[in-house]
Amino acid sequence: MYRKWLAADDTYLDGLSEKYSALAQNNTIELNFVETPEYSAPKEVYNIGQSMWMNKAINESFNLTWAFPVDSNFSYLVRLHFCEFESNITKSGERTFVIYLANQTAEQGEDVILWSGGNGIPTYRDYILLMVPAYLHVFSVLGYLVFRKIWKVKNSGSGNRRMKFTTTPRTSYPCRYFSLADIKAATNNFSDAFIIGAGGFCNVDKGHIDGGATSVAIKSLKLESSQGVHEFETEIEMRSQLRHHHLVSLTGYCTDKGEMILVYDYMVQGTLHDHLYHTNNLPLPWNNDFRFVLVQLEDCSTSIYSGVNGTIIHRDVKSTNILMDDNWVAKVSDFGLSKGTTNMSKTHINTIVKGSFGYLDPEYYRRQCLTEKSDVYSFGVVLCEVLCARPAVIHTEELRQASLAKWPKS
């Protein structure tokens, strides 16, 4: 297959990535082609990489992003080549990262050393993406295939991790309003010690409000999310319609000085995902584990459809979006991608595909037809995760066993 290899990719970097990154290169490393054929790519692909600067405050405020236009309504094979060529990175876990393709999570907490087997060993990963037309406000755009990569920065100490948005959302919503000063007071000026989670488009901090009497989770959206304002408004508008003990309660929001910050009840026991796969958290108690499997998943899925003005479809149900309170009650969070309809006669909603690989309803992915059953499928994947303690996708497995949904049939 013919490929055109470019000596430099800086023309495809977005503004922040071009400004705050540099090329890193190791010309002395001896590449060891173990499973990847040597003809897969030129040597320069594996000994050169784009690197963020050493400034922690800047690095934590953006994703390293490449973007380029593609024709819509086609499926594309995206092959990403990797090789760890820094001599001080030799063990799994020393450098992990997240990959986003077309605004969807493709890999989370992944590790090149784990993929390849060691330093200096090239490897690659293939992805299939169906690109559909994208619309931004009142004018249409061609649709962009976006690849985002985050390298974890191991630093200590506190600092201001916030960046202002160039687009300002509405300032009046039917829930409590917090000023930026309130948020800074609640998080000790966004101290690193308060961080409890980080994603491609947001950071999550633990905070204390009402004079320290109430613990909350504070979700701060980042600048580079092209859907940021829309998802921010959707989250508030959808959550204002829903009240259920299996939904994480939205306490309030902040739009002060262009910020987009959401404040939620603090879930003491964290995410279901962390209890399934991370040993530094308490395991799910035996009785609660099966109570969750048999009862709470059904209750969670039912609660989403109990909107007062029609049907609401979550669109991003996964184990990281299911949290548990101090009584181990499961609650669904993160409604930024959700869709609602008041037309109950419609069997589906036509919309572009959003969500997370491994949890997406195959019919929704193929036909862009979103239904209540799309969430049911995603909840089914989560149920299988709980029963099998196996991630939704394992890219190191062979194709037939990579997907949890297909794994039992293999």
Automatic annotation (TrEMBL):
Q: What is this protein called?
A: Protein kinase domain-containing protein
Q: Which is an annotated Pfam family here?
A: Malectin_like
A GO MF annotation of the entry reads:
protein serine/threonine kinase activity
Ranges of residues in domain Protein kinase: 190-410
InterPro entries assigned to the protein according to its UniProt record, in alphabetical order: Kinase-like_dom_sf (IPR011009), Malectin-like_Carb-bd_dom (IPR024788), Prot_kinase_dom (IPR000719), Ser-Thr/Tyr_kinase_cat_dom (IPR001245), Ser/Thr_kinase_AS (IPR008271)
PANTHER family, per this entry? OS01G0750732 PROTEIN, OS05G0423500 PROTEIN
> Where do transmembrane segments lie in this chain?
127-147
Gene Ontology annotations for the cellular component aspect, listed alphabetically: membrane
Family annotation (SMART domains): S_TKc
Q: How does it sit in the membrane?
A: Single-pass membrane protein
Q: Mainly localized where?
A: membrane
Q: Where in the cell is it found?
A: Membrane
Q: Which UniProt keywords apply?
A: ATP-binding, Kinase, Membrane, Nucleotide-binding, Serine/threonine-protein kinase, Signal, Transferase, Transmembrane, Transmembrane helix
